[in-house]
Predict the 3D structure of the following.
Amino acid sequence: MLETMKVNYIFAVIRGKDEEDGYQISKGAIKGGIKNIEVAYTTPNATQVIKRLVEEFADDKSVVIGAGTVMDAQMATNSIDAGAKFVVSPHYSQEVMDVAKANNVYYLPGCGTVTEIVNAVNQGAPIVKLFPGGLFGPGFIKDIHGPLPEIDLMPSGGVSLENIREWRDKGAVAVGVGSALSKTVSEKGYDGVAEEAQKFVQALQG
């Protein structure tokens, strides 16, 4: 599962206005080629969105459904019960880590300092989310990999069509992309999400 997530590379961070919006944005991202779906708990009824996606894509092993903005143990439990294969936070939470470990689910915590990053890895985080990524820039990952080459880092925030390859070239093992995917929904509907997702996949491939 972890290798599948790395091969997929791009995580679509889904923040829907309501349950159906979150569900449709997720499906649009998958249609456009982004197969890691992180349903943020800022989406109303996020647990139900996760459950619907897990059921719909149960037979597609390339699609990995997880939860984002997981702030506490209860959110982690709810998302995992719905079928989430990974949970993501904007910060490091020991209680979320404990729930994830107990359920053999990956926890990708958000960190912003070397101390936080090392602590998260020592506690079992397979990938550390660099957040907010735009504050640091791609060079930060290269700097971290100087003394700590084995740590897998994923920026979330600040990833664009113009810099996605630079993030990868500087050593990012994955990237998170959010609002850029849904920016044309009001004009094009959810087909616009698929179009934007495809642009990110193509930009990565060069």
Summary: The first helix runs from residue 2 to 8. The mean pLDDT is 97. The longest strand covers residues 10-14. The chain is about 45% helix and 15% strand.
